[in-house]
Design brief:
The protein is 36% helix and 28% strand. The protein is an alpha/beta fold. Strands 5-6-7-3-8-9 form a six-stranded mixed sheet, sandwiched between helices. A four-stranded antiparallel sheet has the order 11-12-10-13, with helices on one face. It has a three-stranded antiparallel sheet with strand order 2-1-4, covered by helices on one side. A hairpin with a 2-residue loop joins strand 8 (224-229) and strand 9.
Length: 329
């Protein structure tokens, strides 16, 4: 379905000098700084897969997605999406893919949502029967029927994201690219969007490429993840393998009310570590090795803590751990 071979993208940034004179000199300067956004990656994705394409900010995720969509042209290498080179066949690839960028919309701002869908129907030349069937499916799955008559500019963020997902899927693309589709959304809207993606994938075998910083998105939707860092792929495999490698890592942040020294705190035979952060104490542990209740009980009763906050492993934590493993070998 998707074949990526030796894919590279290098951006050239003019080297700017200081001041007004320096700015004028830059206009006529041939000096550039090369920024490698994607560095010789190879990747194959089969039909019907839901793949999490993750990494820290600036890792190269969005740049890769834009090359797969035909928005950017690779510096080197090759991309084939359903047998088509996207950047050479923009019109042909547009029929095969749907794209949702979390910070942008493809809907018309000042007209009712339903009118945007009608415009897309004509653009993609969707038959009346297919349009009705898909609109019924999308309205039921995403819950957008209640605000179809509202202007897009009046929609809340959660409503607009659901509408954008419907617009991207209206022409029944074979591949759906989702770039941060749940960013800034509340828990209930996130759950609805995740469930909709599952249903689309199960019913229509839609291939989904998902970039996100939300580990819950990854756990709920993806069986395979690809991790990119500094423009290169550092992991490609099953989500379960990552979870088995790093375990259920948690960080409990508390504000102790008693004096203490981190060297004297109970590590439970090395299963728990501590880190001072201003007036807070970060308690780090693997919930597969020690029960969280035991850690919380120690924080409350021994350290007389308040303002407890629990955080699970983040994508940045995973990337950092993998890079640390590579460096230590």
């Amino acid at each position: 379905m998707i074949h990526i071979e030796n894919l590279t993208k290098i951006f050239k940034k003019p080297i700017r000098q200081e001041g007004v004179l320096g700015m004028l000199k830059t206009l006529f300067s041939a000096k550039y700084e090369e920024i490698v956004a994607v560095n010789h990656i190879n990747l194959d994705i089969a039909e019907g897969e839901i793949v999490g394409y993750i990494g820290s900010n600036g890792a190269g995720k969005s740049t890769t997605i834009k090359m797969m969509c035909g928005i950017l042209t690779p510096t080197e290498g090759k991309v084939l999406v359903d047998g088509v080179e996207p950047y050479k066949n923009r019109r042909k690839i547009a029929q095969k893919i749907g794209v949702v960028f979390g910070q942008k919309t493809q809907l018309w701002w000042d007209i009712p949502l339903i009118e945007s869908f009608k415009v897309l129907k004509e653009i993609y030349q969707i038959s009346d029967a297919d349009y009705k069937e898909r609109m019924d499916f999308l309205c039921d799955t995403l819950g957008i029927r209640e605000f179809l008559s509202q202007a897009v500019r009046t929609l809340s963020l959660g409503q607009r994201m659901r509408a954008d997902l419907a617009a991207a899927w209206l022409h029944n693309p074979r591949i759906l690219f989702l770039d941060e589709p749940t960013i800034g959304l509340d828990v209930l809207v996130k759950e609805r969007i995740r469930e909709a993606i599952k249903v689309m994938n199960a019913k229509y075998k839609t291939t989904v490429i998902l970039t996100t910083h939300d580990m819950q998105d990854i756990e709920d939707l993806c069986s395979r993840i690809v991790i990119i860092e500094n423009g290169g792929i550092i992991y490609d495999g099953a989500l379960e393998t990552i979870k088995h490698r790093f375990g259920d890592l948690r960080t409990v942040t508390v504000t102790p009310k008693v004096e203490y020294s981190t060297d004297e705190l109970n590590t439970y035979d090395g299963k728990v570590s501590y880190e001072q952060q201003d007036s807070n104490l970060l308690i780090k542990f693997n919930a597969d090795d020690i029960a969280m209740e035991q850690v919380v009980d120690y924080a409350f009763h021994t350290l007389k803590s308040s303002d407890l906050k629990v955080a699970e492993i983040t994508i940045e934590d995973v990337v950092r751990s993998i890079l640390h493993e590579k460096e230590s070998k």
